[in-house]
Amino acid sequence: MAQLIRSAKSGSDWTNADLLAYNISITPTSPAPSLDHLDSTILTSPTTEDPTLSESTADYLGYLDLATHATQESATATLRLLGFNARHTTARAAQTDVCIIYLRGQPVLEVMTIPCITMFGPTPTFYLVPVTRELSDAVMTAQYPTSETRVLKYVTVAAHQRRISDGMADPEFRKLALKRFLAFKSLAKSY
Question: What's the domain of life for this entry (predicted)?
Answer without folding.
Answer: Eukaryota
